[in-house]
Amino acid sequence: MGDHAPILQADSVSLRFGGIRALTDVSFSVRRGEVFSIIGPNGAGKTSMVNCVSGRYRPTEGRILFDGQDITRMRPSRRAALGIGRTFQNLALFGHMSVLDNIMVGRHHLLNSGFLRGMVYWIGGAQREELEHRREVEEIIDFLEIQHIRKAQAGTLSYGLRKRVELARAVALRPKLILLDEPMAGMNLEEKEDMARTILDLNEEWGMTILMIEHDMGVVMDISHRVMVLDFGRKLVEGEPEEVMAHPDVRRAYLGEEDATPAEAVPA
């Protein structure tokens, strides 16, 4: 799982929209090389927290550190360049473009070609760079086992395959930390199993740290190293899956079963 130095740290993060408190004084850390899941009921503040990490929202109070650097006020593009990748709850693919081109878009910020090099497009520079990016994208396509759809229009694919393509596009940055917002929502059992295996492979084989929001408790328990529970924008508990699921506040707030044991509360 890698060393225990935190790659991401949230210190007393609060977020308000007018009079509405989306997050209140939330602190947590994600260790380098782990799968860290955020769970909680609808409206608990999970996506708000991930949006604060990605830069879509700026915390009202508190700060966020990535790799020891304060990123609280950085633009999302700058965070991406530092090594934070993300997928979205609602698919954000270009439906008219091929799978290959969608993933190439994910590498766009890595293209170092200046304006003049782009205009001239000389063989010694920009074309060679383009070829390197294409090779990298082909490796990602192989890794995620989507070779058979590489030339297909993204908009024509099934929901499960579109989610894989979106993950491929986030992975194209080769991020140190990848933010997954409900990667298995709307998937059937087989698709969920495939996605869970892929996330573990990204973590174990490619060394990516994963911060994930997911509703499927079976998946969370199976693949997470640690879990944080949010409820009404506040942190209830953070720890290893078994201890989190055994916590009485979690059973009350999340499972709604006061006397449930962890074995009963979590489907096998």
TrEMBL record:
GO CC field: plasma membrane
Secretion signal, residue range per the UniProt entry: none
Molecular function GO terms recorded: ATP binding; ATP hydrolysis activity
UniProt keywords, alphabetically: ATP-binding, Nucleotide-binding, Transport
InterPro entries noted in UniProt: AAA+_ATPase (IPR003593), ABC_AA/LPS_Transport (IPR051120), ABC_transporter-like_ATP-bd (IPR003439), BCA_ABC_TP_C (IPR032823), P-loop_NTPase (IPR027417)
SMART domains, per the entry: AAA
KW ATP-binding (keyword) present: yes
Cross-referenced Pfam families: ABC_tran, BCA_ABC_TP_C
CDD domains: ABC_Mj1267_LivG_branched
Domain ABC transporter residue range list: 8-257
Superkingdom per UniProt: Bacteria
Matching PANTHER family: ABC TRANSPORTER ATP-BINDING PROTEIN, CONSERVED COMPONENT OF ABC TRANSPORTER FOR NATURAL AMINO ACIDS-RELATED
Protein known as: Amino acid/amide ABC transporter ATP-binding protein 1, HAAT family
Organism of derivation: Muricoccus roseus
